[in-house]
Amino acid sequence: MQPNHVFVVSTLLNVYSDQGNCALTAGDIISLVNATGSYADTPLLTVASGKRGDCPAGAQVQVVLQDLQEMDNNLRVQMDNAIAKLHSDQGQGGLPAAPQSAIASPPRQAIDGATATPEPGVSAMLDQEQQQASLAETGVVQAAFASNGGGDKTQASKGPAQ
Predict the structure, then answer these.
(1) Side-chain-side CA neighbours of residue 74 (13 Å)
(2) Nearest CA to 12 among 73, 70, 92, 58?
């Protein structure tokens, strides 16, 4: 919650402003003025842009933190969906294909800027850890069935299998 952080309104909100009660609707843009002190639960924001009939530009409004979080979450979801669509539709419908350098993962860089190379034996060590984890899991499953009398009693109580 930094001053001048911008929020894009995602749903209809009736808010209190310095000019009386007014509405904010989807697409209106508000900017954080103050998020501390007496405004901790309902920060003070300035309307940067609004539609005709909404809170006028320049009006100072108070918006509940939960509504601001919802606006931020909604914007992030929309951006994620748009990026996924651009990625999946590249080279189609008038969209240019992305260059290979933009699609491939960049090479890992060490702290000093040099290209990082994997330590020798790391792959073998990870394989060994995976095998040990699988053995441990198998042991837990066997111990669980052993404590259950050695099998599934529900089948035995139903009678012979058909």
Answers:
(1) 13
(2) 70
Order of all β-strands in the sheet with 29-34: 6-8, 29-34, 44-49, 60-62, 13-17, 20-24
Tell me if the pTM is above 0.70.
no
CB atoms within 10 A of CB 17: 19
Q: Among positive and negative, which fits the CA dihedral 127, 133, 135, 141?
A: negative
Instruction: Note the pLDDT of residue 11.
Output: 92
Q: Which residue has the tokens 């979080």?
A: 69
Q: Model confidence over 3-34: pLDDT tens digits? A: 788 999 999 999 988 888 999 999 999 999 87
Domain count, the chain: 1
- Domain membership of residue 64 (yes or no) is yes
149 domain residue, yes or no: no
- Cβ pair 106, 100 in contact under 8 A: no
Residue 60 lies in a domain: yes
Within 8 A by CB and 6+ apart from 115, the residues are 107, 108, 109
How do beta strands 29-34 and 6-8 pair?
antiparallel
Q: Which residues pair with 73 in a beta bridge?
A: none
